[in-house]
Design brief:
This protein is mainly beta. The protein has strands at residues 3-7, 10-12, 18-25, 33-39, 46-51, 56-58, 66-71, 76-81, 90-97, 113-114, 118-122.
């Protein structure tokens, strides 16, 4: 069955860095758009970054600080997070989609598969 397993979350100081990983199984990794979303309690899950075949998309709030990458040989997608700030504190979710239309990537409803999430806390 399809599984997305996130790891790499934890505690970081403002200005620090973390790298999240998401290991995928149960589907053909290269035929899916992979993305990261995040959610804080009481708020909707929001788009962070996505990686299609050759294109990447970032939310305005993370562009220039976060970088998404994927390693097909390992069926893994990464999110390198630099210059973290307090507003980056959230539960981060990995997601996979059939849709390679970039206009759909910021909508969480476009993603069929989800991981359980990994908590990122930025605090001094």
């Amino acid at each position: 069955q399809v599984q997305l397993v996130e790891s790499g979350g934890g505690l970081a100081q403002p200005g620090g860095s973390l790298r999240l990983s998401c290991a995928a199984s149960g589907f053909t990794f290269s035929e899916r758009v992979m993305a990261w979303f995040r959610q804080v309690p009481g708020k909707e899950r929001e788009f962070v970054a996505a990686y299609g075949r050759d294109s990447k998309l970032y939310a305005d709030s993370v562009r220039g600080r976060f970088s998404i990458s994927r390693e097909t040989a390992k069926n893994t997608v990464y999110l390198q997070m630099n210059s973290l700030n307090l507003e980056d504190t959230a539960n981060y979710f990995c997601a996979a989609s059939f849709s390679f239309f970039e206009t759909t990537w910021q909508d969480r409803r476009s993603f069929q598969y989800w991981g359980q999430g990994t908590q990122v806390t930025v605090s001094s």
